[in-house]
Design brief:
The complex is a heterodimer of chains A (118) and B (319). With 118 residues, chain A is mainly α. Chain A contains five helices and three strands. In chain B, a hairpin with a 2-residue loop joins β4 and β5. The chains are: A mainly alpha (118), B alpha+beta (319). The interface between A and B is medium-sized, with 18 and 21 residues.
Chain lengths: 118, 319
């Protein structure tokens, strides 16, 4: 799995790390059930703080893409739908960024999302 | 096959040729003063002679010693340790010359001594010649500059100027896991059930099982520090090739026949010109080291790893 982060970017490093995992899952270079590198290890590898990596992993857990287990590290959720889910989350985040650029408030965006559900 | 340049071989042979010439010329010039029997071995207590050799045999053995050492260095020499050839020739040649000097005019070989100072002197000559040999290394071009990461067909992974990238992947061999677990499981069974002391052979299960299990699951990482291969179960032992040492990387596919032909089997393999952590067939990341050796590790998605490694090595070289 390829991780690439740009400390000069406006996007927080943790989010960049999460995006790498989502991208890898979406394009098949990471498989459902695969173990992510330990946070400390990945932090050493990229030269970032371990809490930054953990923030990224936490975000992925909130998105339902990985499971975090004490002592067992981070696992991509097993199941064939994980890549599709990763793609969906990526598109949602893109949409959210677009909404922010348009000047929509958080509430307006959520209302839009709810409206598009039905 | 050793691909040392002819010039490197010549520079390795030269000090031995010089030592042999000096030695033989000395023997010829002082022929009338040579004793029939040489004292050739000395005890530890003050260097008193306790071993003797006839004149003809001494000449043959001493010349043969220099020739053998010289031939060995000439055949196996590398650019880096060239100075070792000069040190070896200097040390051996000086000892032989001093030995001849101390034996000159000896009527009773039993009374010939070989003081410790001789050894120190030979050591000093060896050190001087080692420095000379080191200086001569400059006359030998570095190995294969073609193995630079600048080769145009090598895969690349474009990175932004400030971008930091790392690639990591775990890979496992199920047969190796099964074998290792079986070996480990057999250990207590044999220890308990087999008759003593033959049961101690059961400990072999640990010897086979532990390294087997360590190799059955490995993690390969390519990042700003280079390539790291370690067991997925523990962070040590590990193999690391730093970016300084990386001359280039590529990805290949090895089928079972190719694994057997190039590495002779699975596991941690050390061959004449390559080292490999080979846990399965399939995609292999091949790293050319600056010394000319290859390091290979079987890992899926090796192409991305090779591309990133080439990019990182190139960037590292620029800084």
């Amino acid at each position: 799995m390829l991780f690439r982060v740009d400390p000069a970017s406006a996007v927080p490093l943790g989010d960049q790390i999460a995006a790498c995992v989502r991208g890898a899952l979406a394009d098949g270079s990471a498989a459902p059930g695969e173990r992510l590198p330990a946070a400390r290890e990945l932090a050493d590898s990229l030269g970032v703080n371990v809490h930054t990596v953990l923030r990224g992993y936490q975000r992925l857990r909130e998105e339902g893409l990985i499971e975090l287990r004490r002592g067992r590290g981070a696992l991509i959720v097993p199941g064939a739908t994980a890549p599709d889910r990763a793609r969906l989350v990526s598109r949602l985040r893109e949409a959210a960024a677009e909404a922010r650029e348009l000047g929509l408030t958080e509430e307006e965006f959520v209302d839009l999302a709810r409206a598009s559900l039905g | 096959m050793n691909r040392a340049a002819p010039r490197l071989r010549a520079l390795a042979a030269l000090p031995f040729a010089l030592a042999l010439t000096v030695h033989l010329v000395l023997l010829a010039l002082r022929y009338d003063r040579l004793p029939d029997t040489f004292a050739t071995h000395f005890g530890p207590d003050g260097g008193h002679a306790d071993g003797f050799t006839g004149r003809t045999a001494f000449t043959a053995v001493s010349a043969g010693l220099l020739l053998t050492l010289g031939a060995g260095w000439t055949l196996l020499v590398r650019r880096g340790p060239l100075w070792g050839a000069w040190a070896t020739a200097g040390f051996t040649g000086t000892l032989l010359v001093l030995l001849v000097r101390d034996n000159l005019d000896a009527t009773d070989p039993e009374r010939v001594g070989f003081p410790l100072a001789n050894l120190l002197f030979a050591g000093a000559v060896a050190a001087l010649l080692a420095l000379a040999g080191r200086g001569l290394t400059r006359l030998v071009p570095r190995d294969e500059p073609a193995a630079e990461p600048g080769t145009p067909d090598a895969p690349r992974l474009p990175l932004g100027a400030g971008e930091v990238a790392g690639w990591t992947r775990a890979t496992a061999s199920r047969p190796l896991t099964v074998l290792a677990v079986l070996a480990l499981a057999a250990t207590p069974a044999v220890l308990l059930l087999a008759p003593w002391p033959a049961a101690l052979l059961g400990l072999l299960g640990l010897v086979v099982g532990l390294p087997g299990l360590a190799l059955a699951r490995i993690r390969v990482t390519v990042d700003r520090r280079g390539v790291t291969v370690r067991s997925a179960l523990a962070s040590r032992p590990r193999v690391r090739i730093s970016l300084d040492e990386v001359a280039g990387a590529s990805a290949r596919d090895l089928d079972t026949a190719a694994v057997l032909a190039e590495f002779g089997g699975w596991g941690y393999r050390v061959r004449a010109h390559r080292t490999g952590v080979i846990v399965r067939s399939g995609e292999v990341l091949v790293v050319r080291r600056s010394g000319g050796r290859e390091f290979a590790v079987t890992v899926p998605d090796a192409r991305t790893a090779a591309a990133l490694l080439n990019t990182l090595a190139e960037r590292h070289g620029k800084v």
